């Protein structure tokens, strides 16, 4: 993995990282927003402590551990990645309530256009802020966007100590089973 200086990471602030999307995906994973490592590399969930890629494999979504640089391979499994808020920041708490709300509005438009079977938002706090649903919990939601169902997953950030990779993989696997059933 490329090492970045603090200055190089700071220079990635506010950059946009292209989505990995296609029409009709089984699951469109939605992060909160790109971190600075993601923005510096151009690869989603690129921070070494982020558990997204290992959990995808552990849950059976991918047959092997993918590197962030292999993110486009997700499309071959009917999977994609986007974010609630497009701009990169060092921490999610740098985002404003308005950015979350606008991100939710734009995300709903994107989902309606792309038509994934499931939208999977990784991070219950981000989901609550983006969709003004203060009572949402991890798991399937009542909300739909067009024909797309919505599932909230735990945030795979290494900072989310409430969830282990194993317990996260169990929740991701619940979504995988639901996505396979239609």
From TrEMBL:
PANTHER family from the xrefs?
G/T AND G/U MISMATCH-SPECIFIC DNA GLYCOSYLASE, G_T MISMATCH-SPECIFIC THYMINE DNA GLYCOSYLASE
Pfam families xref list: UDG (PF03167)
- Read off the CDD domains from this record: UDG-F2_TDG_MUG (cd10028)
Uracil-DNA glycosylase-like domain: from which residue to which, for each copy?
A: 18-181
The record's section on InterPro entries has:
MUG/TDG, Uracil-DNA_glycosylase-like, Uracil-DNA_glycosylase-like_sf
> What keywords does the record list, in alphabetical order?
DNA damage, DNA repair, Glycosidase, Hydrolase
Question: What is the protein name stated in its UniProt record?
Answer: G/U mismatch-specific DNA glycosylase
Look up keyword DNA repair and say if it applies: yes
Give the transmembrane region(s). Answer: none
EC number(s) on file: 3.2.2.28
Gene transcribed to yield this protein: mug
Q: Which SMART domains match?
A: UDG, UreE_C
Q: Which organism is it from?
A: Streptomyces pseudovenezuelae
Q: What class of enzyme is it?
A: hydrolase
For this chain, one GO molecular function annotation is: hydrolase activity, acting on glycosyl bonds
